[in-house]
Amino acid sequence: MSESLPVATVRTQVTVPLRFPDGYSTTARLFTFDGLVDGREHLAFALGDTGAAERDGGAPLVRPHSECLTGDVFGSQRCDCGPQLREAVQRIADVGGYLLYLRQEGRGIGLYAKLDAYALQDAGLDTFEANVALGHAEDERDYTVAAQMLAALGVGPIAVLSNNPEKTEQLGRLGVTVTEQVPTGVFLSPANAEYLAAKASRAARTADLPFVR
Does the active-site annotation cover 34? Predict the structure, then answer.
C-alpha cells in the first residue's frame, strides 16, 4: 500500500548551463518547490528530452542523488558520490529524465556529523558503524520529498538509476511506479575501497565489487 503524500508544487523553473571539470557540458532545467515535507531546498534537474522514453513506451531515467559537499563539489575520493553525480547527469541527459538533488548530507545525518563519522572511520569503524556510534541510524535518508517532487513535475512511472534497492523500495511505498532499477558504474579507488566494500556488504547494493564475496 502506498503512503499518502502531502502535495508539493513547483515554485520556480530556470534553465542553467552545466559544465564539469572534465569538460562535459549540458543544459538543465532546474526546478524548486513549495510544500516539501522537510522544508529543505531540494532541486530537480530536468535533463535531455524528458518525454522521449515515455513516447517510446518506456519511463524516464531518474537519479535520486543525496548531496555530498566533499565529493560533489571538492572531489573527495573518500566516497564515490562525485563520479556518480557526473555519470548520472550524462546518462540522464542522453535518454531524458531527472536528477533529484536531495539535501541529505552524510546519509541524512548532516555535514558536521558526517565529518565526525570520518574521524571514527579513521579509527577503524566502517561508514555504517560510525553513524551508529554517533547515535544515528546507519542510513537516515527519507525519499518522501523525492516522491513529492516527481508528483509536482507530473512524472509517472520511472526507471531509477541507483545501486541502492532502498531507494526503489521507499519510492514504491510512496506511490511511485518504478519500472526498473538501473545500476550505476563502480568508481573504485584506493581511497574509497573500504567504503565501497561496506556499502556492498552491509547495504545490499547491487554493485559487483571484485573484493566482495
Answer: no
